[in-house]
Every structure is written in structure tokens, then in C-alpha cells.
Amino acid sequence: MALMPFDDRDGVIWYNGELVPWRESRLHVLNHGLHYASCVFEGERVYGGAIFKLREHTERLVNSARVLGFEIPYSVEAIDEACNLVVATQGLVDAYVRPVAWRGSEMMAVSAQHTQIHVAIAAWEWPSYFNPEDRLKGIRLKTSIWRRPAPDTAPTNSKAAGLYMICTLAKHEAEAAGYHDALMLDYRGYVSESTGANIFLVQDGVIHTPLPDCFLDGITRRTVMELARARGYEVVERHIAPEELARTQEVFLTGTAAEVTPVGEIDGQIFTVGDITRALIGDYDKLVRAAGNDKASSAA
User: How far is CA 197 from the centre of its chain?
Assistant: First the structure.
């Protein structure tokens, strides 16, 4: 299947305060964000024309930039408005939104205090992150050789672009071996997450999830934890050793792109797509669709 390149599409991108034709939203090759990873971003989903938990995503974008030592030159309210403008201008109903902020080209060195901070927001139609058939029967993961770094070696509490290089390496490694994605351990050897989503384990009816002390405490992660507790499930945040997979019945991932995705296998260990996972898939779908329906009703 031919890929649709992301630099050659119809539509508009919000770029430093104005809507620019998609193909004209360019930056210089001597860009600090490219050379030194001075870049933060967000991933947001649109359901029924409404961006789910937009304010939380925008606040995290601003905080991620501060962790990397720069201030985004737009208010949270202005970024929210711009995200909604991009979606509305293109008439998107179910889509993905990518706000991104980076240091510009004024300085080409490690030091970059005097670079301009740029912000862009793009949005496009977005299907399921994983093949729908694979998702329903559970995807296959392979434990990666790459590990999540310690919080004193990288800005692990930010959604920084540079942190995702090991995710790309891990996912390529897994796909080359015939898997859908990779399981990443942290620097201590504990289970952390997949390449782009948080992970949950169901053991004897109790839901367990790793402490997010060296990776992002995902917005979808927190949402699904709330849904699980509302159903009366016990949710425990703790360090999880990979050996515990042997006594785990269900595994699922959560993320803006992945939503709630069951895992059917990790390194040959088989898991069921059980009642708890199925219940949370349904609850999450109802929640995000209700947000889109609320917007549609208010606009009518």
C-alpha cells in the first residue's frame, strides 16, 4: 500500500499564529530542534469533532517546554483555540492533532538561549493505531533491548521528541521480528510501557500498572484508571518485575493513539482478552464518543 507522505497533503497547518497551506509549512535544515532535539509535542484525538481532554494536553505541552528550558510564546487558551481552529477549518470529525514546539535556527550549538520558539499545529484523519482485527484479539509484544532512562539522565517527565528515538529503535526491532510493538523495561529492569503507550496487568481481578517515575503519566492512563475505579476495580500503582507476567491473566495498553488495546502475547507468554479489558475498552469508547456528541449537540 502506497504511503501518503506527511509533507505533501491538502489542508492547513497553524504555524506561529496563522493558518498556512500544508505544503508551505517549512523550516530550515539548520534547526536546533532537528540537530539537538530541542522539541516537545503532544498527540490528541478528535472524536465527533471534539478534541478529547484538550486542556490537559495543552498544559502538558507548556510544561514539557519548561522542562526543556523554554517558554512557549502563546497562552494555553490561545493554543487550545488554535487546535480547535485547525480541526474546524479542515472539517475533521475523527482525527489526530499534533501540536509541536521547538527552538529555531538562530543558534547552531549546544547553547541555544537566544533561539526563537516556534509552534505549529497539524491535524489529519486518523484510523485505529493498530489493525482493528489485531487489536480485538490482542497485539503481540517483544521485550526490547532498549530501556527507559533514569530521571536524572533525561527529562523523563516531559513529552520531549528526543526521548522517542529509543522508541523508534525498539519498535523497529519488534516489527522486524514479527511483533506489533515492543515492551520496554526501565533502567532498573522493571516493566515500564510500550513504545508509545502505558501498560496495565490484570492479576486475579486486580489491575496493576507501573509507577510513572521515569516515563510519562499518560492522560489516557489516568482516564482509564478513573474508569476502572468507577467500576469498582482495584488499581495498584507499583514497580512490576517482568517475571510477574507469568502470573498475569490480562494485559492492555492505554494511550491517545492506542486508546485501550489488549495484548495477547509478550515474548511467547499468552494472555486472554478478558472481561476487565473488554469492559474498559467499552467504557473508554463511550466516554470519548460522549465528548464528541456533547460538542455536536451544543453546536446544533
Answer: 6
- Residues 223 and 255 sit within 8 Å (Cβ to Cβ): no
Domain boundary among 70, 98, 125: 125
Cell of 32: 536546533
Provide the 8-state DSSP code for 49. Answer: T
**What's the rounded Cα separation, in Å, for the pair 108 and 122?**
26
Say yes or no: 56 and 154 in one domain. Answer: no
Last residue of a domain, one of 104, 125, 146: 125
Q: Do 145 and 273 fall within a single domain?
A: yes
| CATH code of 266's domain | 3.20.10.10
What amino acid is encoded at 4 in this protein?
A: M
Cβ atoms within 10 Å, residue 5: 7
Q: Tens of pLDDT along 162-207? A: 999 999 999 999 999 999 999 999 999 999 999 999 999 999 999 9
- Condensed to tens digits (0 to 9), the pLDDT of residues 213-258 reads 999 999 999 999 999 999 999 999 999 999 999 999 999 999 999 9
List residues with catalytic annotation: 159
What is the chain's alpha carbon radius of gyration, rounded to the nearest angstrom? 20
Which grid coordinates belong to 76? 494555553
Whole-structure pTM value: 0.93
**Does 187 share its domain with 265?**
yes
Q: Are residues 99 and 225 in the same domain?
A: no
> Within this chain, do residues 136 and 265 fall inside the same structural domain, yes or no?
yes
Is residue 127 over pLDDT 90?
no
